Prior knowledge:
alpha+beta; Chitinase A, domain 3; 10 helices; 6 strands; elongated; disordered N terminus
Amino acid sequence: MLRSRLFAATALIAIVGLAGPVAAEDAKDPVIATIDGVTINKSDLDLSEGSIDPQLAQLPPEQRRLAALTAIIDAKLIAAKARAEGLESTDDFKNRMEFLSDRELHNAYFKKHIVDTVTDAEVKARYDKEVAALPKQEEVHARHILVKTEDEAKAVIAELAAGKDFAELAKAKSTDPNKSDGGDLGYFRKGQMVPEFEAAAFAMAKGEVSKVPVKTQFGFHVIKVEDKRDAPPPPFDQVKDQVRQMVMRDKYMELLKSSKGGAKVEITDEALKKAYDEANKAQQ
């Protein structure tokens, strides 16, 4: 029941590029099916699969292709009825097709002149530029021992002063869940810890242990600063897709700028004209 409903729903999917009959079968584009002599090729199936509803896109590959094929067949069957009624000759349909044609030409041009032209070298250069522009941000690597009372914290400080190992003492006495890691909090930046803890940790020097307990909403802390450093940038491999999007965005904005420069755009609706002009100024 679920499967039948699933494939029936594909009739609502927008199918792009459902062409008419093909004269001969191409070895690279074999015929998948025919409807009253009209062929459905592999390329049609690929287009349908690429435009399938996101929920259906999560299906296993074979079910996804079946859903895509069902969408094509349903669309062609209903399209034949629409042609029989002459719907393709209506002004509404012609206007919609012109809109869809412009949009697809826009997308094809964007892919050819922007998406396909962005190189890995450009992306890496943009990453390096963005990294160089990042403001320096300090990070602290700290450990802590959390106890319930100030007296307990003072006793811990005394034991550390007597030579006890901080990590071993954290394992033995801390109430924080990370006690098994010797109280290790890793590296953190400002804004990631509660204010009292953060203020104390960033004020301390590398290797220093807090001389007085630090009180927060969680209890009393004894802190050891293991290291201080400038925060490293995110690794290139982690953000390269976002950086590629930035490069494509900038290229697209340049394309739009050059295209608008030679075009006469007139907007008769005053409110829309004002909004359009303001949006263009903001982009510039």
